[in-house]
Write a structure and sequence with these properties.
mainly alpha, globular
Length: 251
């Protein structure tokens, strides 16, 4: 079962590369098929095996010999590991299904936000709808509605932080995708972990922000991957994180 989840994750990771790279450009995720972005060479089946093909081709296109971005095998491997972790942590449960949905969303965000600084609405919308359905089926309508309210609360907090940041820095401080992602985080984590998700994401982003500041680079920090990482870390370790928060509140 573990191997199956890992392989399925690798396959989906290959698809999430396509989604993350094409959606921001308003391209179809179905046509054309997988191809080299430089010479448009259509990949044969043995050139399209997750991770293995990258190693076999030594990271170069078979046709034009140009380097293939390392992001492709990295996302494939990441998704495989996340799918496997979802099963190992939660077993065959509704929580495992939500973990896989969140893992899928995180993989897509890593591609799109890192390259284009865009988090598309459609992956967020689909993820949100699926999570709400699972919550209602597994916990009942009341808990499902509570999860939606929790999502709206975290959405509202991050939106308020965006307005404050825009006022202080006189420019856009957070993207719309970051705010919408926060609804998914609140929906999945609940209110207390949802608030902690914002704090943890800021801590995760701080070293990188300092790095680009020291290098003197200008422009916005792609905050989406840090928010997504924070959300996933807390979901996989929700019990430990909640105990930590309770201990802090007890102080």
């Amino acid at each position: 079962m573990e191997i199956m989840f890992f392989i399925i994750g690798l396959i989906f990771g290959s698809f999430y590369n396509v989604v993350g790279l094409r959606l921001p450009n308003n391209e179809s995720i179905i046509k054309p098929g997988s191809h080299c972005p430089k010479c448009k060479h259509k990949l044969s089946w043995y050139e399209n095996i997750p991770v293995i093909s990258y190693i076999f081709l030594r990271g170069k296109c078979k046709n034009c010999k140009q380097k293939i971005s390392f992001i492709y095998p990295a996302i494939e491997l990441l998704t495989g590991i996340l799918f496997l972790s979802s099963y190992l942590v939660f077993g065959l449960t509704y929580n495992c299904a939500i973990a896989i949905i969140l893992s899928s969303l995180v993989s897509i965000i890593f591609v799109s936000d890192s390259k284009y600084m865009i988090i598309n609405d459609s992956p967020l919308l689909i993820s949100g709808i699926l999570i709400v359905i699972i919550k209602i089926i597994s916990e009942g309508l009341k808990e499902g509605l509570y999860s939606i309210l929790s999502g709206l609360l975290i959405f509202g907090i991050v939106y308020a932080l965006m307005l404050l940041g825009n006022f202080l820095f006189k420019r856009e401080s957070l993207g719309g995708g970051d705010i919408k992602l926060s609804f998914i985080a609140g929906l999945s984590l609940g209110p207390s972990l949802g608030i902690f998700y914002i704090i943890l994401a800021s801590f995760l982003a701080f070293p990188y922000a300092m790095y680009i500041s020291v290098k003197g680079e200008e422009g916005m920090l792609p905050f989406g991957p840090f928010l997504a990482t924070s959300m996933l870390l807390l979901y996989f370790n929700s019990g430990l994180a909640q105990a930590f928060i309770n201990a802090l509140l007890g102080l």
